[in-house]
Amino acid sequence: MVGTLWIGLTHPRRTPDCAFIYDIEVDQEHQGAGYGRALLAAGEDAVRAEGVGSLELNVFGGNTRAIGLYESSGYTVVTQQMRKALRS
Fold first, then answer.
1. Where is the N-acetyltransferase domain (predicted)?
2. pLDDT in tens, 30-78
3. Which fold has domain 3-72?
4. C-alpha dihedral over 52, 33, 28, 4, to 10 degrees?
């Protein structure tokens, strides 16, 4: 096994017609070999086969490698979270 993908067909915010990727991981020694893209495509096919029209995920802003994968796979930013530290 080189990676895992966890998808829920029901979105955590109950967004209609939208599944959610809770986690996608590829073992570090296998990253960059196309396994992440293959997992993502397989997940999309599975969600599509269930009749769900869209798929959403969260990604940390600094995870540029994952962001590149998602953007090149057709994902777009729909929300953005921001934080301000109140203690120094």
1. 1-88
2. 999 999 999 999 999 999 999 999 999 999 999 999 999 999 999 999 9
3. Aminopeptidase (3.40.630)
4. 30
